Amino acid sequence: MRAVEIENWALSVLDRVQQGLPIEDSRVELKANWIKANHAARRIAGHCSASAGDKILWLIGVDENTGITGADHQDMATWWPEVAAQFDEQSPGFHDLALTYNDHVVVALVFETDRVPFVVRNPAHGQQGGSGGPVEREVPWREGTSIRSAKHSDLVRLLVPAADLPRLELQKATAEL
């Protein structure tokens, strides 16, 4: 996705925030601040896995209720490696873009969802007195705007269509004006 497309998508969401319209849906998530790595990884994994191949947009520095508060883009350099470390084997690819809206810096993150399902580690697994129990890893799933563990049927619906996709190879192309 090109930077101008990310910016356009983010600006359209920010306009809706300013108008007080509902925002969060199956493709958009708003965060007032950078959230803890393990919580972010679980939410990102669930959001990506349930998106059915569509890219998803996270806007950091925006709250649906209080509006645009702004975010520090410098935090991305330390935040993302901590988030990526919570994933098992593969974390989603992403594009980030800092943009200014009404004198506030907002960070737009567009996540690629073509490598689903995404598996995250349970941070409480193996800890003394931890509530994680025997569950070492999980495939989170977004339902509405909440996150739960994926069910068998979710994974079947996710994986079977991907296995049936035809493979196309461009042999020749021309373009004229």
UniProtKB/TrEMBL annotation:
Q: What is the lineage of its organism?
A: Bacteria, Bacillati, Actinomycetota, Actinomycetes, Pseudonocardiales
What's the protein here called? Uncharacterized protein
